Amino acid sequence: MNEGLKKRIRELLRREYEQAEKRASQKGLLKKIKKELLAEGWQESYAGELIKLTRQAEKALGAELSKQKSGGKAELKAASQIIENVSGHYDYVYSKMVREVEKALSNAPSNRASWQDAAREALKPLLKFDHYVETELQTGQAALDRAIRINNLREGADEGETIYLRYEGPIPERDYCQRHFGKVYSLQEVEKMVNDMGQPALYYCGGYNCRHRWVQQRGELLASYKNGSKVIAGPGYQQQENETGIAKMRAKALKNRHVVLQKATGTQNKKSADVIENGVKYEYKTIRKDSIPSTATLNAIRRGKYQAAHIVLSSEQNIPKEDALNAIAWNVKNNSALLRKVEFWNDGNKKWEISLEGIKNYEI
């Protein structure tokens, strides 16, 4: 709400309260405030924003939204529904705002010295309304942008190609975003998802003002498990040190673990992990049967910590835990900033793991 409108409403109430004998009825006051809102052009401004959203979608999707109630492309129907939701929410919020202004005026003191209290209470719903409208417009704009991107992905896909999407963005706070952050789903799977606010997650992600997005994950699905885990080989991926086997082992053992094997691009002293699990970079290392346990463990961690802060050691032999901990502690002592967690796996099962705090507290 601009300062000019706030000033005019305050002045309106001051005049009414100071001229007690000529004061308008509560209904009359409400009518005058609504007149100020109309004069400010809020409704016209909001209608103009809806027109902008509609034209943007029609230009990008190549059709009139008014003709998309049934049939046609999925994103055309979605765009039409998104704009309809924005419009309907405005009508609801405006009606609610007027009721709250009316309630505030009826509860305000009637003496002339109290006009400032009345103005303050009457302006609260208006300020809240302004915030709601801005949120609705921003959320509708983001949903339309996602619908346009998804439409472009559909049109660019080869016939019969499965489109995979990865949930990305800032560190998640909402429950829905935490559950899906860094994970990969087929477009068909995401189409069935509904966020915790009851909105289609393909277009609204986690809901109002959500800053996350669905990004295409190219590659080949290597494995999918009943526990919700899956393994995908990203474009250009070439197997190194039995990474595919470790990825499948972990996906099979850990619930809802989405593993994406990346093309190796890293160089020493440069973190560029070739494995991403649920949005977190991991480095896989294999310890062979014929290696010296303590030396092999030390070298595996030494190499791996420059690629990712989380290291998975898959061993073909039983390594004494003390040898492994000594190797970890040595690496932390020489460069602790690069290491966050080490997991030790043997025979397809996780034997143990140690976090940064545990590593720091361990003495050689």
Describe the SSE topology:
Blueprint: H1 3-18, H2 26-40, H3 42-61, H4 74-107, H5 115-156, E1 164-168, H6 175-180, E2 184-186, H7 187-191, H8 201-204, E3 213-216, E4 220-224, E5 230-233, H9 243-253, E6 258-261, E7 275-277, E8 280-287, H10 293-304, E9 310-315, H11 321-335, E10 341-346, E11 349-355, H12 356-360
Parallel strand pairs: 5-6, 8-9, 9-10
Antiparallel strand pairs: 1-2, 1-3, 4-5, 6-7, 7-8, 10-11
Helix pairs in contact: 1-2, 1-5, 2-4, 3-4, 3-5, 4-5, 10-11
Give structural attributes:
364 residues; alpha/beta; Trna Endonuclease, Chain: A, domain 1; 3 domains; 8-stranded mixed sheet; 11 strands; 51% helix; 15% strand; elongated
Describe the structure.
The protein has about 375 residues and is α/β, with parallel strands linked by helices. It folds into three domains: about 5-155, no CATH class; about 165-215, no CATH class; about 220-360, Trna Endonuclease, Chain: A, domain 1 (3-Layer(aba) Sandwich). It contains twelve helices and eleven strands. The strands form two sheets. It has an eight-stranded mixed sheet, with helices on both faces. Strands 2-1-3 form a three-stranded antiparallel sheet. A hairpin with a 2-residue loop joins β7 (about 275) and β8. α1 (about 5-20) packs antiparallel against α2 (about 25-40), α3 packs antiparallel against α4 and α4 runs antiparallel to α5 (about 115-155). About 30% of the residues are buried.
